[in-house]
Amino acid sequence: MILHTDSRNVVGLTTAETPQSTVPSNVAGLAFDDPVVAARHIVPMLERECDLVVALTHIGLDEDRRLARDVPGVDVVVGGHTHLALQTPERVGATPIVQAGDNGRFLGRLDLTIVDGKVTDSHGELIPIVDGMPEDVAVSRLVEGFAGRVRDRLATVVGTSTALLDGDRTRARSGETTLGNFVADLMRTATRADVALVNGGSLRASIGAGSVTYGDVITALPFENPVVVVALRGRTLRAALDRSAALAPASQPGGFLQVSGLRYAIENGRAVDVTVAGAPLDDEREYTVAISDFLLAGGDGYTTFASEGTQRPPTGLVVQTLVLDAFRSGAEVSPRLDGRIVRRGKGQSTP
């Protein structure tokens, strides 16, 4: 997918996998092509109308490098998606590539020297955003106007936790975490399903031990996804686990699955020794599986849930609400790791 502004010198590029990372209704009627192929089409048109072409991308550093290498006419790449904090610009040929991390931790500055419409030199840096920095008065007032409306609600204490609910991006997308266990267990218990699966990309922050606020919960779980239950053959469930196990941890894939009701090991990119309720997974048996509507719709590439599963009646449950209600109930929240997902091999833990 591409877009460009009325100023006709900025081209926007997003990853071709976008339809797999959101619900279908968000991308209805849109086509997502290879971003480099799309850039080869649009950049020559921009070059005829402007002096400088800036690619504003959400495709990751490797694709940014490919873009800079394979598309003549791209003068600057301002990238995202991989959340990297590049302290100084990386250059591919004469094209600088910059990224400024994530969550507003840095302000990126890039100074360009342009001669006859060509970038001849560039210097850049990341400026840390820290407490005590002077505020822009106009922007501060605008933000405060919105923040004041929701501050009290966000600060409302909904319960307590005796332990850290770990939703760290890297860990939630590569292995078992306490937040993943907690959410998946709630889904399985509430639906009485045999198994529950939670994509790691839906967990966006940790919830600390102690008092837990409404804001803590919606920061960690910002998506209001309904819970659905599907009946799957064991072989289909195994295929989903294999897909999760094959994802490279270094790429921080949102499709890595947190689980409840089953245990398995990851070995050579496969799910092995899978058990459900203590018994070996039976490829021919039918299991009920609680998932989000995002996964049912094929999110993160899990198309088999809809194509090979049988959806049960609507549950009326929402993942975020389940977590809020669990805290509000006053029940003890004390999540722990129990070895339901282990990695085997060099440098990995073993069961």
Descriptive account of the structure:
The protein has 351 residues and is of the alpha/beta class. It folds into two domains: 2-128, 4-Layer Sandwich (Purple Acid Phosphatase, chain A, domain 2); 158-343, Alpha-Beta Complex (5'-nucleotidase,  domain 2). Helix content is 28%, strand content 27%. The protein has helices spanning 35-47, 61-70, 137-154, 169-172, 178-191, 214-220, 234-246, 293-296, 304-308, 319-328; strands at 2-4, 10-14, 54-58, 76-78, 90-92, 95-98, 106-115, 118-128, 157-161, 195-199, 210-213, 227-233, 257-260, 262-267, 270-276, 279-280, 286-292, 310-311, 341-343. The strands form five sheets. The protein has a six-stranded mixed β-sheet, with helices on one face. A five-stranded mixed β-sheet has the order 13-10-17-12-18. Strands 16-15-14-19 form a four-stranded mixed β-sheet, covered by helices on one side. The protein is globular. The relative contact order is 0.12. Residues 1-8 have low confidence and may be disordered.
Short description:
The chain has 351 residues and is an alpha/beta fold.
What key phrases describe this protein's structure?
351 residues; alpha/beta; Purple Acid Phosphatase, chain A, domain 2; 5'-nucleotidase,  domain 2; 2 domains; 6-stranded mixed beta sheet; 5-stranded mixed beta sheet; 10 helices; 28% helix; 27% strand
